[in-house]
Amino acid sequence: MRVIILQNIKGLGQMGDVKIVADGYARNFLFPKKIAKLATDAALKEVDALKKKREASQNLETENVVKLAEQLKDAVLEFTRKATKTGKIYSAVTKEDIAEALTKQFSTGGGPASGWKVEPNSVNLEGHEGGHIKQLGEHIVKIELAPDVTAEVKVKVSQE
């Protein structure tokens, strides 16, 4: 049976894909859970129109993400923490802290970042102990804005 996938499903396909699946799988699993619908001529035309519309908006979104990456290149996030004499901080700077600071700094005002919210899982603290910044000083953090667009942000941690 030919079906149109309505959601991105790992192992099955992306939203809008036309797949051939077993009749029982479609009737008993995909259709009741509204994961797929029968691929009729009208449904196929509707999916093509949606794909074109989504592609156009995705191109615009990609342009905004690239502009945002340019803005983030010069960004410096500053945090103050209590620390030991050796420079180890008591309360680590986490992905959540960085995401919140970026959201506050860049989502207000106009431009490509207007209304932009950083998700903590898009912050890459690779190379830092335990995925947290635990030392005073300057650190470079990578932010994944899109699957193919990454920006680097400078994080400065100073003593309280």
Automatic annotation (TrEMBL):
Entry annotated with the keyword Chloroplast: no
GO biological process, one term: translation
Keyword Ribosomal protein: yes
Every Ribosomal protein L9 domain range: 13-40
Pfam families, A to Z: Ribosomal_L9_C, Ribosomal_L9_N
Annotated Gene Ontology cellular component terms: ribonucleoprotein complex; ribosome
Keywords: Ribonucleoprotein, Ribosomal protein, RNA-binding, rRNA-binding
UniProt superkingdom: Bacteria
GO MF annotation terms: rRNA binding; structural constituent of ribosome
InterPro entries membership: Ribosomal_bL9 (IPR000244), Ribosomal_bL9/RNase_H1_N (IPR009027), Ribosomal_bL9_bac/chp (IPR020594), Ribosomal_bL9_C (IPR020069), Ribosomal_bL9_C_sf (IPR036791), Ribosomal_bL9_N (IPR020070), Ribosomal_bL9_N_sf (IPR036935)
Role this protein plays: Binds to the 23S rRNA.
Protein name in UniProt: Large ribosomal subunit protein bL9
Taxonomic source organism: Candidatus Yanofskybacteria bacterium RIFCSPLOWO2_01_FULL_43_22
Gene name of the record: rplI
